[in-house]
Amino acid sequence: MLSMEKVKVAIIGPGNIGTDLMIKIIRTSKVLELSVMVGIDPNSDGLARANKMRVATTAEGISGLIAMEEWADIKLIFDATSAKAHHYNFGFVEQYPDKRIIDLTPAAIGPFLVPPVNFESITAKGKVNNVNMVTCGGQATIPIVAAVSKITKVHYGEIVASIASKSAGPGTRANIDEFTETTAHAIEKVGGAVKGKAIIILNPAEPPMVMRDTVFTLSENADQELIRNSIHEMVAEVQKYVPGYSLHQEVQFEEIPKDQPVFIEGLGLSHGLKTTVLLQVVGAAHYLPEYAGNLDIMTSAALATGERMVNEN
User: Fold this and answer.
1) Is the pLDDT score of 220 beyond 50?
2) Is this structure's pTM higher than 0.85?
3) Which domains are seen in the chain, by residue range?
4) Which of 10, 21, 104, 136 is catalytic?
């Protein structure tokens, strides 16, 4: 049952991701109220936009937020900074048991969370004060790996996330290594693959292209129709909070026979069923243009997580 009074939240990081999330909360959320936008540069465009939207701001980082009178009422914090900055920020937030933080960086202090895959399994263990949204590529592709894992054992999962160069801000560029490592680990931990690999491509094409993701899995042989149906069901679940998420082409299958195995790093010679899924993510254009689907899926997943946390309390 929804609470009549909105829960107050804060965003740390007024860059592209933080600003997009701010606009989403203000325009679309029925349960969250943005109380403060936090940055470290007083001349930040994001802080200026927050002020215009009548959101309180501070340019003194996490310590500035804690010093504000709004801090007492804030129950949820979204961190849209960087992996390194999140470690610093959480060192302060964890001292307040009544606060929870949703990490949109690849820091991975808390458990990985992909809403349609493992929200219930994480929250069933009790209140978690830090959850990690993996990466934009992880939010787009891990649901697909998990969908295949529902039907059969996945030995290997590889994802290639291609995003428009213009949609990759300083935070994204500074976290490329963390992106690949965190996403690969989450493919295994959340997606269910024995071995995971992640690649990100910043595409400089003009005009900018929308986010495209390719998912490859190598699994035990299984009923292809069951796998296809599981993938379609998962796409429909993601579309509930990311309307621009869709299959770019129909699911493709290829059987790898025992006498013609392929070599996979970390696994050796392997055979089974190769499944290829091509996705695209068109952004909602709340802040940046439609090509910034990588921002949209990240902020939409974080918002969906925050709202579900609030509704379950």
Assistant:
1) yes
2) yes
3) 7-134+295-312 (3.40.50.720), 136-291 (3.30.360.10)
4) 136
